[in-house]
Amino acid sequence: MATTSHFSATSHCSSVSRFVDFGSRSGGKWKSNLLLIRTLRSRPLARSFSVKNVSSEPKTKLENPISGEDASSIASSIKCHAEFTPLFSPEKFELPKAFVATAQSVRDALIINWNATYECYDRLNLKQAYYLSMEFLQGRALLNAIGNLELTGAYAEALTKLGHDLESVARHEPDAALGNGGLGRLASCFLDSMATLNYPAWGYGLRYKYGLFKQRITKDGQEEVAEDWLEMGNPWEIVRNDISYPVKFYGKVVSGSDGKKHWIGGEDIMAVAYDLPIPGYKTKSTINLRLWSTKAPAEDLDLSAFNAGGHTKAYEALANAEKICYILYPGDNSLEGKTLRLKQQYTLCSASLQDIIARFERRSGSNIKWEDFPEKVAVQMNDTHPTLCIPELMRILIDLKGLSWKEAWNITQRTTAYTNHTVLPEALEKWSLDLMQKLLPRHVEIIEMIDEELINTIVSEHGREDSDLLEKKLKEMRILENVDLPSTFSNLIAKPKESSAAAISENSGEAGKLINEKDEVDSGDETESKGEPKSTGARKKEEVVAEPPSKMVRMANLCVVGGHAVNGVAEIHSEIVKDEVFNSFYKLWPNKFQNKTNGVTPRRWIRFCNPELSKIITEWTGSEEWVLNTEKLAELRKFADNEDFQTQWRAAKKSNKMKVASLLKEKTGYSVSPDAMFDIQVKRIHEYKRQLLNILGIVYRYKKMKEMSAVERKAKYVPRVCIFGGKAFATYVQAKRIVKFITDVGATVNHDPEIGDLLKVVFVPDYNVSVAELLIPASELSQHISTAGMEASGTSNMKFAMNGCILIGTLDGANVEIRQEVGEDNFFLFGAEAHEIAGLRTERAMGKFVPDPRFEEVKDFVRTGVFGSCNYDELLGSLEGNEGFGRADYFLVGKDFPSYVECQEKVDKAYQEQRRWTNMSIMNTAGSYKFSSDRTIHEYAKDIWNIEPILLP
In the predicted model, is pLDDT for residue 189 greater than 50? Predict the structure, then answer.
């Protein structure tokens, strides 16, 4: 088995040239292409850099081959790939073919840089960070890659020579279906910053064949169809057939004659590496995103069964292996769905760690010192999905490398670190112990031993005298939930003499309530939605047969125990993590806990997606330094009231709005006015993100408009285009009801001749990164209105602020820090605060909540049927009552509704004064300088990973 390999240093086109008569083949175009390749190899770096010498060698200076290539050579390279790396028929050079050939041409340059980068890392044996994530929401790669390589103009000119324009070619690239929400976009921003800042790092993920789903909006609301992003191939990826690792499921654990544990039997698959080069901006550094695809060996095809007509049975082993990487977040309402999700998570962890260890061994040569492993490797777990890294690393070190438990545990804790993206304890990921025992028997043994170590630590910390306190701490902190204490600790807690059936029933019901809340309350911006839980019919209390609570593995607790660092992703979130979610762990290990406020890359999210605004920023700040040093954005504050500057600023926004108006017409058929305010909420559809609050506010606005004369409503209301986008998880019924409601409101409002352009409501189907790159630069008001204390951070709020959009929101997640930086007067704040939420829910349960008359008015208006024949009793019913699952307005829509409506009135007033509004817009961009992912990565590198960048001269 190969441990690793580099990209081929010689491009396909240049290697073919050895066998072709250049002049006779194509009039000398091969000579031009070969010249381009040679130029790429010899061209000096626009930003040359030296490498820190970690082994007392002379400093190594690397030169960048990418700078100033002429359009003719690039055109020849594109033509070469169209002819000699074909995925299309040769007759025509149409847009899909032009995109693939262009991407392959760019990839040649990336491969050369990738090789140079990793040859340097290998030679110096630098410590490297590995970022493991179930999602990487990359978006289109072409414009980002040529922008980072500073070849945008040359490629635009080259494609013009070939009869196409760059923008049209770029639009033919599908978005990679490797993520869904903020978790994946954050990971992709981090990769960009790692490469740009020259850190030795790369990412690991899964290569989903179909992603989550492609969203269609019909008269029935959201419909899901399989994503087709790989149907035309992916010109960026390089399959590594020589890099594959075995991944095992099921089987049993036996003890060998040597006393070691051996995991044998079961189901074996192979994880094969697919690599995507990730270029840095204005630097040679090109890192890697390695994605795993799963398959079974050919011999697992049962030929006898196939020839006997049992085709499905014959293919079963191959299908079971391949389906692991079919779908992002397969539905887990069934045992099969849960099993598939757990297989996905273990595949990511096992294949990645085997690869990391193989690289460590190869770099170490014959002198492997395992105690040095944490000095060469940092593993970052992005949320709890990669938690199995901890027992998997222990298994490899103990069972395969022969280390003792103490040695392996020390190495594992020093190597791994955990980023938490979830606020509420009931939303933290758990897995059935029984399922894990069947699927990963050796890992359960290791987890049990880690749990026993933790118990011993808790007992040592709190003593045995106060049994009630000890019981409380064990119940809260143990990795294994509802599992008896190990025999060595069996006398710690006195067992109750007897338990009544009624008490057991009551406790079981409470446990069920928490599980239901976990399914519906997914509190991290970056984690996937859960489906709506099934309700159970009511029984008479005396007929209830209490079932013992399920035995669970608490993945977040395992992350905290098994790693050396735990970080939240916004200041308020990190405080909640320390004060509430993991308070007992924080008291035990305060130095483990950190804050790392999320950030977004200013390259993709201003420089490339908003070129007109970027040009203005560059002109007024005097250079493009702000792209790498966003602190320069703060200089815009001194121009905020300059009339010429404001005029240019508004013109750039208007130009972007016109592009979005065309997009909305193309995607939805609705015509909107670019002179109206563009009010946008685009993110995953979830009750806690409160798209329902937004659309009810729009309905209230519409009702009040209808009650006025044309003159009155024109005087009172600013024209608005209210834009929604985002996917509801396929089994999340309430979220899908919200999508249906939004589209029904739009269908009524948009066809009302009395309202005209004064109000439009548009739901953009299949929201993704490419759509975001158009919507965000055009936005003027952006809604980040989650129930306070439930959004871990958010990253879209940062992107909107960077692009001069003013936020309306609660004091939640990164909103808190954004408001501090942009200024309180430049943020529209409403709603209850995080520390009030628990008390407000308690008051509701006690029947003390009195709804605002405006809230009752808007619900009654919906129930009149003005928005069509759909019955919205279940949707509105969730906002009513004082208790019960799916009722009692858990997300406080009713509580915050009056504050929200009043805040929207302030928005209208501010927008009517365009000089003031433009000033606020400028101040948002100026104040967003702290929210670059470059800053975040510097902090991770310094405080968690302890890695050094390549030092720039």
Answer: yes
Query: Please, are residues 951 and 52 in contact by the beta-carbon 8 Å criterion?
Result: yes
Burial readout 145-154 (b: 16 or more C-beta within 10 A, e: otherwise): bbbbbbbbeb
The pLDDT-based confidence of 637 (bands split at 50, 70, 90) is: very high
Catalytic residue among 684, 841, 844, 895: 684
CA distance 310 to 617: 66
> What is the spatial distance between Cα 128 and Cα 411, in angstroms, rounded to a whole number?
15
**Closest alpha carbon to 325 in 340, 313, 335:** 340
829, 819 contact by CB (below 8 A): yes
Residue among 671, 685, 922 at smallest CA distance from 801: 922
* Catalytically annotated residue among 127, 185, 596, 689: 689
What was the pLDDT predicted at 13? 60
Q: Are 791 and 812 in contact (CB under 8 A)?
A: yes
Asked if residue 625 lies in contact with residue 632, where contact means CB atoms within 8 angstroms, the answer is yes
Task: Dump the DSSP string for 784-825.
Answer: E-PPTT-----SHHHHHHHTTPEEEE-S-TTHHHHHHHH-GG
Beta strand segments in 582-733, E: 593-595, 677-682, 720-725
| Helix, strand, coil % in the chain, rounded to nearest 5 | 50, 15, 35
CB 37 within 8 A of CB 274: no
Looking at the DSSP assignment, which residues form a beta bridge with residue 380? 131, 417
Is residue 684 flagged as an active site residue? yes
CB burial string 108-119: b at 16+ within 10 A, e below? bbbbbbbbbbbe
Q: What percent of the chain has pLDDT over 70?
A: 87
Contacts of 735 (CB under 8 A, 6+ apart): 529, 685, 686, 687, 728, 729
Which listed residue (387, 415, 419, 795) is catalytic?
795
pLDDT band at 6 (very low <50, low <70, confident <90, very high): very low
Please identify which of the residues 421, 604, 727, 760 carries the catalytic annotation: 421
Which residues fall within 8 angstroms of residue 591, CB to CB, at 6 or more apart?
none
- pTM of this prediction? 0.89
Q: How far is CA 766 from the centre of its chain?
A: 16
* Residue 507, pLDDT above cutoff 60: no
What's the angle, vertex CA 410, arms to CA 409 and CA 414, rounded to 5? 115
Of 571, 602, 940, which is closest to residue 791 (Cα–Cα)?
571
> Would the pLDDT of 494 be above 60?
yes
Active site residue 689: yes
Q: From its phi and psi, is residue 700 left (phi > 0), alpha (psi between -120 and 50) or beta?
A: alpha
Question: With contact defined as beta carbons under 8 Å apart, do 804 and 921 qualify?
Answer: yes
Residue with tokens 């209490």: 546
pLDDT tens readout for residues 758-797: 999 999 999 999 999 999 999 999 999 999 999 999 999 9
Among the listed residues 799, 819, 895, 930, the single catalytic one is 799
* Catalytic site includes residue 18: no
Greatest C-alpha distance within the chain: 95
Count of beta carbons in the 10 Å neighbourhood of residue 705 = 20
Instruction: Give yes or no: 647 in active site.
Output: no
Residue 786 amino acid letter: S
How many whole angstroms separate alpha carbon 899 and alpha carbon 721? 21
**Which entry of 385, 683, 740, 844 is annotated as an active-site residue?**
683
Measured CA to CA in angstroms, residue 128 lies from 379, 386, 521, 601, 938 at distances of 9, 18, 36, 21, 14
Residue with tokens 């909103």: 815
With 0-12 / 13-18 / 19 or more C-beta atoms within 10 angstroms meaning exposed / middle / buried, residue 22 is middle
- Residue 569 half-sphere exposure toward CB, CA atoms < 13 A: 31
CB atoms within 10 A of CB 203: 25
Instruction: Tell me the torsion sign for CA atoms 605, 608, 610, 615.
Output: positive
